[in-house]
Amino acid sequence: xxxxxxxxxxxxxxxxxxxxxxxxxxxxxxxxxxxxxxxxxxxxxxxxxxxxxxxxxxxxxxxxxxxxxxxxxxxxxxxxxxxxxxxxxxxxxxxxxxxxxxxxxxxxxxxxxxxxxxxxxxxx
Length: 124
Fold this sequence. Notes:
Shape: globular
Helix content: under 10%
Number of helices: 0
Radius of gyration: 13 Å
Number of strands: 11
Mean pLDDT: 93
Low-confidence stretches: none
Strand content: over 45%
Oligomer: single chain
Structural class: mainly beta
């Protein structure tokens, strides 16, 4: 069982930045692809970004390309989502997820473990 703990959400004005962190439990964690998803009220959970653990290759949703950057710290079993030039449309609960296997995926049903979510609110 992998436990994921997110942090870093909050309230920010449009154009501002936030950095989300997701730490995976060290005792049980093995190299796994990790991803970020988000869910706005009344909408389905959607893919934001993902990273392959071994090579660090990344994938981003078109809506965040050029604004968000995903990175990982292997020693800390932690991934970071740097979010710049935030827009009101980015407002959502952001969830960290991990999957068995080191290659990233972009679908919700391809991930095995989920964090509790962290709220990101962007005011206009």
